Amino acid sequence: MALFGKNSLEFKTFTYSNIDRNLIMTTQAKDPSSNMDAIKRLADVVDARRADFLAGKSDPDISYIAKLFSKGDDAILKKIGEEAAETVMAAKDSRFSNLAPAMQTKFVGEIADLWFHCFVALSQFNLRPEDVIAELERREGVSGIAEKAARKN
Question: What pTM did the predictor assign?
């Protein structure tokens, strides 16, 4: 599994440990706050690529992000649907394999693909991951059942 690195699209690897049949993922990052920093950096890259695309500085034939933006809302949202389906299939494969490390790695990779495409959608709609984090924080400590019922009113 890999995440985008600090200054470019370099990769940071994850390692897996099997303790009492529980698979635990640990990152090599030393500072736990760097996880949010990584999210912000990736969002910054996506936003910068969108700005470059809108300014005519990014070629959709060369940049995958520019290609997504060039296709518009429907294509970006369709890609999220495809990635969500792949995530579901990877989760089922992981469970079926009794959480085998290779299947866990694939599942995490599919989640990363889904999150990445969600970042593209957020940027397309002038939003940021911090907006999603703020909503999650707003819901923190509220029963999921109560929160869902409140949305119906």
Answer: 0.76
